[in-house]
Design goal:
The chain is an alpha/beta fold and about 250 residues long.
């Protein structure tokens, strides 16, 4: 039996209760938390889902916290359901949806992956793919920083080479993101696409670059050499949305 997930923070707990992609076993709430706003929404969502809420001293939440930032709320839940690239693609094509995917290789910092997941939710991404052995998975910190993004956007852990091969066979255009690529607004991101990003310090590896149909960059001013990988990912994601809206 898999170990329960620990969700920390009001946003992620609220999203887990609302989206119901997994069972939430209980919610621990700061006994001094004031009514109103997200506290009331968490209580209402927990009641609607039949999830018990236990009021506890804040020091108990501090003791249990694995992230150091719980905002007065911790929940215990089943792990999110796992999926594969093949299954995800089958579901999207069956629904008549053009896949929009993000592939992130070797992201070592949990905050970066969490920020990518949060932006992915806002940009309408259908899935984020990370390697099986390198980088981070859905740790408590990743889920807290994603602020609910992981509840809606599947995180697939799969070999990157295999994942990209499946995408190519499915007719998905693969666009790498690196600082020496063409300006992103000159790269066509419309239609089925997978954005591929390297690690925090390495950028795209030569192996990944060879698998890309195009490589895009975010042109920078002020002699800035590069952006954080999660910021680059967000710019690329929303540039695709802009292009789709503008028709190119």
């Amino acid at each position: 039996m898999s170990r329960p997930d620990q969700l920390e923070g009001r946003n992620v707990v609220l999203e887990a209760l609302h989206r119901r992609r997994r069972r939430v076993h209980r919610v621990l709430l700061d006994e001094r938390a004031r009514s109103g706003g997200k506290v009331d929404r968490i209580l209402a969502a927990a009641e609607a889902a039949g999830v018990p809420v236990q009021r506890v001293p804040r020091r108990e939440l501090d003791r249990r916290s694995r992230t150091g930032v719980h905002n007065g709320v911790i929940a215990e839940a089943d792990p999110l359901p796992e999926t594969t690239v093949r299954r995800l693609l089958d579901e999207l094509f069956a629904a008549g949806t053009e896949p929009f995917l993000v592939v992130v290789d070797e992201v070592q910092y949990e905050h970066n992956l969490g920020a990518v997941m949060r932006s992915a939710l806002g940009a309408g991404v259908h899935g984020v793919i990370v390697p099986v052995r390198r980088g981070k998975g859905l740790t408590p910190v990743v889920q807290r920083v994603a602020m609910g993004g992981a509840e809606a956007v599947p995180l697939v852990r799969e070999g990157i080479s295999s994942a990209l091969a499946q995408m190519r066979r499915a007719g998905i255009r693969i666009v790498g993101c690196d600082m020496d690529g063409d300006p992103v607004w000159d790269v066509d991101l419309r239609g089925p696409v997978a954005l591929v990003l390297g690690g925090e310090d390495k950028g795209l590896s030569p192996t990944l670059r060879k698998r890309c149909d195009a490589v895009a960059s975010v042109p920078l001013a002020g002699d800035l050499e590069s952006l954080n990988v999660s910021v680059t990912a967000a710019v690329m994601m929303f540039e695709k949305r802009r292009q789709e809206r503008a028709g190119g």
